[in-house]
Every structure is written in C-alpha cells, then in structure tokens.
Amino acid sequence: MKLTKNKLIRLTKTGLNSLGYREIPDSTTGAQGLYIKTADVNLFLTVGLTISRYYDSMFTASYYLSKVTCWGAVWGDIPNNSYERVGSFLTKGERDMLLEERYRKEGVKDAWWDGEDDEAIKAFIKTIEITESRFLSQPGLCYDVMNSVEVNELAGLSKATIHSIETNHEDLSSFKFMPPKPIDNIPIEWFKAAEKTIIEKGAILNINTVKRLAADAYRQFIVVHL
C-alpha cells in the first residue's frame, strides 16, 4: 500500500516528539512531514521526511539547520552541509543494525526505511537519536549558518514579520498576494504581514515569496512561543 504523508506523520510523531521535535502542518517546503526543535537561542533544527517516488512504502529524512525553518533552502552562501540526509551520519555497524540489507552494502550511503514495518519505524527514530548530535557537531556548521548573508536576510524578514504581528497595528492597505484559500491553518494576518514586510524591505515580491515568508514566520512563532 502506498505510504501517504498523513500516515507517515502518524507513524513517526510519537517517536520524534519524544526527542523534542514538534510536528508542524506544512505544505510549503516539499517535505512529507516537517518536525522542528530549537537547536539553541538562534537556530532551528528541522527534520523533513521524504516518501520514495519509486517504492510504495519507503521513506527517508533530512536534517536542516538554520535561523529559519525553510527546510532544504540552500543557495548563495548558505552552507551545503546545513542540509543533510540523516542516514549519512551512521557508522557501518549502525547501518548493519538499523537498515535493510540493500542499504548495508559497501559503498551505499543512502538510507531508507519501510513505513509498513514497525521495527523499521523504531530503527528510524533510533537513527535520529544517534545522529542528531553528529549533524550538529560538523566542524564550522553553526558558525557558517550564523554568518551566512543569505540566512541572515531570510531571518531578518521573518523577524520583521513576527514583529508586525506582535505589534498588532491595524493595516488598511490593499494586498495583492493573499492566498485564495487557507494554507496550513495560518491566519490571513500572517500573509498580510509578510507582504508588507517584503515591500518595506525591498525584497522579491510574488505569491511564492509571500507564502514562504508567512509560513516560516508562523512556524518560528509556534515553535518558540506555543
């Protein structure tokens, strides 16, 4: 049976919650399940799930470390190793214990788990438990993320959007890029604040940038405050 996003979230939620991650409704990043925790005061650690396009029940996951929650956003000077598959941090012995035979072979670096197998789900959660600290301790990773111009530009837009919401100023402006229907239960005020922020900061303005900024700012607010 084909693994669905809702089923995969249901299968992984309890285990990832136990490791401090919070599942956030998401249809903007491309993940088939998005989990977030704070890595420190200024950084978010995100785990995004990916369902295989070739095998009905297989899935994998990738870490993303940033000042924002835009899972998988790597461009400009954003460090490539801020976005890595979780399985790449397993040792040979751990791969033998936690992966199917096809992913234990010499030279195979990829790692996938079977959503129809309860033991595989447990092995996936164990993989996150084992590898999280290894991902975070990559030499220079936190420094490179904190000092990335692109990351700081994204974070600045998100911070300004959250500030606009918190100050709660009534805005009678007309808005061009409001979504035609609700997205991930995000109140419409967040999209208004995002569009206003983008205009004020002179950033690229279109329906996609408004949606991405509103969703990121809202996710950050939820993780930190609620």
Terminal CA distance reads 36 Å
Order of helices and strands: HEEEEEHEHHHHH
How much of the sequence lies in strands comes to: 5-15%
- Helix fraction? 40-55%
Query: The biggest beta sheet, please?
Result: 6 strands, antiparallel
Structural Rg: 19 Å
Alpha-beta content class: alpha+beta
- Total count of helical runs of at least 4 residues: 7
Mean pLDDT: 95
- Poorly predicted regions are none
Tell how many strands the DSSP assignment holds: 6
What multimeric state do the chains show? single chain
Number of domains: 2
Which outline best applies?
globular
What do you see in this structure?
With 226 residues, the protein is α+β, with helices and mostly antiparallel strands. The protein folds into two domains: 5-141, no CATH class; 149-225, no CATH class. The chain has seven helices and six strands; from the N terminus they run αβββββαβααααα. It has helices at 5-18, 92-98, 118-136, 141-146, 149-167, 188-201, 207-225; strands at residues 22-23, 34-38, 44-51, 58-66, 83-85, 113-114. Strands 1, 2, 3, 4, 5 and 6 form a six-stranded antiparallel sheet that branches. The longest helix has 19 residues, at 118-136. The mean pLDDT is 95.
Fill in the keyword field for this structure.
2 domains, 226 residues, 43% helix, 13% strand, six-stranded antiparallel sheet, alpha+beta
Quick rundown:
Helix content is 43%, strand content 13%.
List the helices and strands and how they pair.
Elements: H1 5-18, E1 22-23, E2 34-38, E3 44-51, E4 58-66, E5 83-85, H2 92-98, E6 113-114, H3 118-136, H4 141-146, H5 149-167, H6 188-201, H7 207-225
Helix pairs in contact: 1-3, 5-6, 5-7, 6-7
